[in-house]
């Protein structure tokens, strides 16, 4: 089994019970988007695939302990790749990509591969799948708060008593700000199409709930 498939199998096991849409399906969509963007923008395929596969592997630790899953994910990637015998330069490049991927961290990507990972991860928050992910994630975080009594401060809008208010706040604070924070022309083209659908959906939702004062 090659390194990519070993990594995929490992990540699948770690995220088997992940409830908030940072699961393997998200991981593999981000991986695919990285490859789509790479076709036009270039970049090292091995670095991109590994960074995409590992980028959220620390989310379970964040759910349990708080902190930053991007940093946890980089540390997990380092341990796994070191044990697998990967070279130091590859490991450091993958870790750098992972550390800077998170939208809420505001970190600037320093390499083409890091920029592509940022773009791919952000695009998966857009379009039909972006709407689906946001609603499932909000529900999951509500349940985790009820069970553990903890609040994820990076997702504070999730915890609004009025779910619609929280959803509108999320939409304005992330998806509709993503375009201005993409790095590549290829990503901006994909995002532009996905945002059209999100605008249609949000306009319809606001119209259907306009009776609420």
User: What string, H for helix and E for strand, traces the elements in order?
Assistant: HHHHHHHHHHH
CATH architecture: Orthogonal Bundle
Count all strands and give the number: 0
**Tally the helices: what do you get?**
11
Strand-residue proportion: under 5%
What would the CATH topology be? Hypothetical protein af1432
Which structural category fits the helices and strands?
Answer: mainly alpha
For the record, what CATH class applies? Mainly Alpha
- CATH homology superfamily: Hypothetical protein af1432
Largest sheet at a glance? Answer: none
Please report the distance between the alpha carbons of the first and last residues: 58 Å
> Helical residue percent?
55-70%
Written description of the protein model:
The chain is mostly helical and 213 residues long. The protein has one domain: Hypothetical protein af1432 (Orthogonal Bundle), CATH 1.10.3210. It is 69% helix and 0% strand. It has eleven helices and no strands. The protein has helices spanning 3-14, 24-41, 45-54, 59-65, 69-84, 88-99, 112-123, 127-148, 163-173, 175-178, 185-208. The protein is globular and about 60 Å long. It starts with a helix and ends in a 5-residue tail after the last helix.
List the topology elements.
Elements: H1 3-14, H2 24-41, H3 45-54, H4 59-65, H5 69-84, H6 88-99, H7 112-123, H8 127-148, H9 163-173, H10 175-178, H11 185-208
Question: How would you concisely characterize the structure shown here?
Answer:
With 213 residues, this protein is mainly α. The chain is built from 11 helices and no strands.
